[in-house]
Amino acid sequence: MMIRRSLVSVVDDDKSVRESLPDLLGELGFASRAFSSAEEFLASDCVGQTRCLILDIAMPGMTGPDLQRELKLRRQDIPIVFITAHRDKTVRPRVLEEGAVECLFKPFSDTALLEALNAALRGS
Amino acid sequence: MKFGNGGPGGLGHPRRRPNVEVQLEHPAEETKRLQRCINDLVRILALPSIWSGGEPSQILHTLLDALLCTLHLDIVYGWLKDPVGEAHIEMVRVDESRKLMPRPQEICEMLNHRLGDDPLKWPPLVRNHIGDRDISIVPLRLGLRGEIGVIVAGSQRADFPGQTERLILSAAANQALIGLQEARLLREQKRVASELDQRVAQRTGELAKANEELRNEIGERRLAEERVRQEQRELKRIEVRKAAILDSALDCIVTIDHKGCITEFNPAGESTFGYRRDEVVGKLLADVIIPASLRERHRRGFARYLATGESRVLGKRFEMTAVRANGSEFPVEIAITRIPLDGPPSFTGYLRDITDRKEAEEKLRRSEAFLAQAQYLARIGSFSWRVATDELVCSEQLYRMFEFDHRVPVTLELIGTRVHPEDIPMMDDMIERARGGVSDFEYEHRLLMPNHSVKYLHLIAHGARDKDGHLEYIGAVQDVTQRRLSEEALRKAQSELAQVARVTSLGVLTASIAHEVNQPLAGIITNAGTCLRMLAADPPNVDGARETARRTIRDGHRASDVVTRLRALFAKKDANTESVDLNEATREVIALSLSELQRNRVVLRPELAEDLPLVTGDRVQLQQVILNLLRNASEAMSTVDDRPRQLLIRTERDEGDRVRLTVQDAGVGFEPQAADRLFDAFYTTKNDGMGIGLSVSRSIIESHHGRLWATLNDGPGATFSFSLPRGPRVRRAPTVFATDVA
Fold this sequence. Notes:
A: 5 helices; B: 17 helices; elongated
């Protein structure tokens, strides 16, 4: 039954996000996994199954964009939706240019997230 | 000899007289007669004692009286020849009892007739008839030949003269002769003595006169001699002094005659030229001290003067080259004057070795050249300004800086034509204060050059009074245009940088705050959205909704915690509390901001009260307030160009045991209705202001139990004042934001 549901992985060092987003994703009809760091995500078995990656930009250790480049190197063409608490206007165009589907500024609404996810999954 | 004319009259009756011869028979009578005779003789012989010292007339007088009386004569006559050529003396005595007396004339004639001229031939006795009677007359010669005189005795008695009478007469004649001779002698002696006395007196007088004249003459001669001696001494003294002047003169003094030969050469000349005086006197000056190369010229000039009276050198001071005995040449300053005496022209030359002066001049010239070059390189000009006369002396570089013509004397007016119009009020103020006698001043001002370029000058001047009490400033002016432009650029860059930094740091701060808050907000919003979706499901997922609501609350607390942490982060530590000397604190602030004030062409006038009480508080905070007020005032005048940008800062005792500080500007002021809002945070009249300064300043002052307020001036500008209670007062200042007060 659950196989049809696309896996959305969440990578964020913030606990609030890691706790709240999976419930919302579940309500929106997605399967989800949450990771507290990029390294944890890479080490998991979800990389290949993940249909969309919701990725925090600023994290201790490997940052969001670092993970984006790493996945590109591994030819893992996972659509990425960046989320960030820094309202840095220069960041968004940079990551979009690198291939990200969207960049959402925290706090974002559930509809904005759903639009981004739909866009990501449509593209894949 | 003759008898004189005068004489007694005729003889009277002959008196009865006892005849001696008759009475010889009576011895008693004889004795009596002898006694009488002796008495008579004694009387006669005593006569000379009466005559002693008498005159001949006296002698004759007494003799005749004595004979008349002694011999009872009827007549007696005397005649004396004057011994010294005077008139002869003739005298007659007759017996008063005889009534019939011939006249003396008759007696004389009778005697002449009877006796004759020659006394030697006179008879001893003559009987004569005189008058009506016969008289016996006895002539007696005085002197052997009667040369002295004659006495004639006459008596009527027939027996006259008796023997004794002859004796007495003879004795009387002898006595008379002796007496007369004595008298004559005496008289002669007297005469001689008198004459001698007279002559002596006369001679003495003459001598005294001569002596006096001599003495006067001697006195005059002495005076004259003394005068001559004095004149000689004076001449000598003058000569000695002139010689001493000549000898001690530091200048060489050389005199020459009309042929150009040396006649005098003083010791200074000897030591300067290395000749002895006796070596050069008589030689041609040209051959002695003038270098060979110049001799011909000297000769021509000398000859021209002698021929025409024209000279290019006489009476002037000039420099030339001279040569010493050893051949070395050296520069001298020389002045030649003609000696103003009659006769052929002669000249005095005054020469001075100016080697040292030349060297000093050369050094000075080099030094001046160095200075000029240094001023050129450093773009520094120098000047001196005598305030009383407005006499300005400027260095070459200063001329260059102002682009003034070198030939034109610099005046304050001329300088005024170059000063930037906006800086004229400041310059006027500066000049006025300098005239008032400030000791030093330092200013920056601009020049507006004819080509409309602007120069920035930095001026430093030091005032001093000369020995007459006149104020003079010596100053240096540096062209700081390059520096000022660089500083201006730097300041602008700094300002921009500060702005960037401020924006950046604010951005960073905002981002940081946003990040910290957005994280929990993201959780809250996501949870809230999830919760709504769970409740909206059919059937509603109540358990899930509860869980998400719980997480929403948790994240809300988390956001609250972030804000609390931020507040704690910006909290300032407690303010320091100490005794603060507001004057000293003010001076430090002035020192810090003076350069900026001057750059803004603000004329700062501090009036700091003496013996100002200390206040208690945070020195740095109070200084931030003062600095803020100064900067506000300076900025308020930044657009003022029609008046001096005067800024007064004053400290004073305030009423109620307080201390007041006032900052008064001449700036744009503020809207009267804005007076209360001035101190609100974020209220600003400035384009680039944050509106924080006055708000923070007021909170600082109020935290010091003080008051800060603003008033508008009667004239342009505003005045900001604060008043603080005097210390000491131990307390803690409350916590305030102390950043970015300016």
